[in-house]
Amino acid sequence: MNTPNSNCSRADYWFLFATLVVTLVIFAVLYTILNNYSYFDFKPIASLVFIAIIILDLVFQAKRLNDASISKWFLLIHLFRLLGLTFGVISYIVMLAILCLPTQEIPTTNLMNNKKE
Prior knowledge:
The chain has helices spanning 10-37, 43-67, 85-99. By secondary structure, it is an all-alpha fold.
Protein backbone atom coordinates (compact mmCIF):
# COMPACT_ATOMS: atom_id res chain seq x y z
CA MET A 1 0.00 0.00 0.00
CA ASN A 2 1.25 3.45 -0.85
CA THR A 3 1.81 6.00 1.86
CA PRO A 4 1.81 9.74 1.14
CA ASN A 5 5.62 9.83 1.00
CA SER A 6 6.03 6.64 -0.99
CA ASN A 7 7.25 6.30 -4.53
CA CYS A 8 5.15 5.44 -7.56
CA SER A 9 6.28 2.64 -9.84
CA ARG A 10 5.92 2.80 -13.62
CA ALA A 11 2.96 0.42 -13.58
CA ASP A 12 1.20 2.41 -10.86
CA TYR A 13 1.76 5.70 -12.66
CA TRP A 14 0.57 4.50 -16.07
CA PHE A 15 -2.50 2.84 -14.51
CA LEU A 16 -3.34 6.15 -12.83
CA PHE A 17 -2.68 8.03 -16.08
CA ALA A 18 -5.03 5.71 -18.01
CA THR A 19 -7.66 6.15 -15.29
CA LEU A 20 -7.34 9.94 -15.53
CA VAL A 21 -7.68 9.86 -19.33
CA VAL A 22 -10.82 7.71 -19.11
CA THR A 23 -12.20 10.06 -16.46
CA LEU A 24 -11.52 13.08 -18.67
CA VAL A 25 -13.25 11.43 -21.63
CA ILE A 26 -16.30 10.60 -19.50
CA PHE A 27 -16.47 14.16 -18.15
CA ALA A 28 -16.07 15.58 -21.66
CA VAL A 29 -19.01 13.51 -22.91
CA LEU A 30 -21.13 14.45 -19.89
CA TYR A 31 -20.17 18.11 -20.26
CA THR A 32 -21.20 18.11 -23.93
CA ILE A 33 -24.51 16.38 -23.23
CA LEU A 34 -25.36 18.59 -20.26
CA ASN A 35 -24.45 21.80 -22.09
CA ASN A 36 -26.65 20.88 -25.05
CA TYR A 37 -29.73 20.01 -22.99
CA SER A 38 -29.50 22.35 -20.02
CA TYR A 39 -29.69 26.07 -19.36
CA PHE A 40 -27.14 25.86 -16.55
CA ASP A 41 -23.53 26.74 -17.40
CA PHE A 42 -21.22 23.86 -16.48
CA LYS A 43 -17.94 25.61 -17.38
CA PRO A 44 -16.93 26.39 -13.75
CA ILE A 45 -17.53 22.78 -12.70
CA ALA A 46 -15.63 21.44 -15.71
CA SER A 47 -12.75 23.80 -14.96
CA LEU A 48 -12.54 22.63 -11.35
CA VAL A 49 -12.55 18.97 -12.40
CA PHE A 50 -9.86 19.64 -15.00
CA ILE A 51 -7.65 21.52 -12.48
CA ALA A 52 -8.10 18.74 -9.90
CA ILE A 53 -7.02 16.11 -12.44
CA ILE A 54 -3.98 18.18 -13.46
CA ILE A 55 -2.91 18.59 -9.82
CA LEU A 56 -3.38 14.87 -9.14
CA ASP A 57 -1.29 14.04 -12.21
CA LEU A 58 1.50 16.41 -11.11
CA VAL A 59 1.57 14.84 -7.65
CA PHE A 60 1.96 11.37 -9.13
CA GLN A 61 4.55 12.63 -11.62
CA ALA A 62 6.57 13.93 -8.68
CA LYS A 63 6.29 10.54 -6.97
CA ARG A 64 7.32 8.82 -10.21
CA LEU A 65 10.36 11.07 -10.58
CA ASN A 66 11.30 10.32 -6.97
CA ASP A 67 11.06 6.60 -7.74
CA ALA A 68 13.38 7.01 -10.74
CA SER A 69 15.85 9.02 -8.58
CA ILE A 70 15.35 12.16 -10.65
CA SER A 71 14.98 15.63 -9.21
CA LYS A 72 11.43 16.94 -8.95
CA TRP A 73 12.66 20.15 -10.56
CA PHE A 74 12.19 18.37 -13.90
CA LEU A 75 8.47 19.09 -13.49
CA LEU A 76 9.32 22.63 -14.54
CA ILE A 77 9.66 21.25 -18.08
CA HIS A 78 5.89 21.74 -18.25
CA LEU A 79 6.48 25.50 -18.28
CA PHE A 80 7.89 25.27 -21.80
CA ARG A 81 4.30 24.82 -22.97
CA LEU A 82 3.84 28.53 -22.37
CA LEU A 83 6.25 29.26 -25.25
CA GLY A 84 4.00 27.76 -27.89
CA LEU A 85 2.74 24.57 -29.46
CA THR A 86 6.12 23.29 -30.70
CA PHE A 87 7.78 23.74 -27.32
CA GLY A 88 4.71 22.21 -25.68
CA VAL A 89 4.91 19.06 -27.79
CA ILE A 90 8.66 18.74 -27.25
CA SER A 91 8.31 19.22 -23.48
CA TYR A 92 5.50 16.62 -23.39
CA ILE A 93 7.67 14.07 -25.24
CA VAL A 94 10.65 14.76 -22.95
CA MET A 95 8.48 14.37 -19.84
CA LEU A 96 7.01 11.09 -21.13
CA ALA A 97 10.52 9.78 -21.77
CA ILE A 98 11.59 10.76 -18.26
CA LEU A 99 8.51 9.10 -16.73
CA CYS A 100 9.33 5.86 -18.59
CA LEU A 101 12.72 5.52 -16.92
CA PRO A 102 13.09 2.44 -14.71
CA THR A 103 13.02 2.44 -10.94
CA GLN A 104 16.40 3.09 -9.36
CA GLU A 105 17.14 0.77 -6.49
CA ILE A 106 18.99 2.34 -3.58
CA PRO A 107 22.15 0.36 -2.85
CA THR A 108 22.07 -1.43 0.48
CA THR A 109 25.83 -1.35 1.04
CA ASN A 110 28.22 1.54 1.13
CA LEU A 111 31.31 0.49 -0.80
CA MET A 112 33.30 3.50 0.34
CA ASN A 113 33.26 2.39 3.99
CA ASN A 114 34.26 -1.19 3.17
CA LYS A 115 37.64 -0.21 1.68
CA LYS A 116 40.67 -1.14 3.73
CA GLU A 117 43.16 1.66 4.33
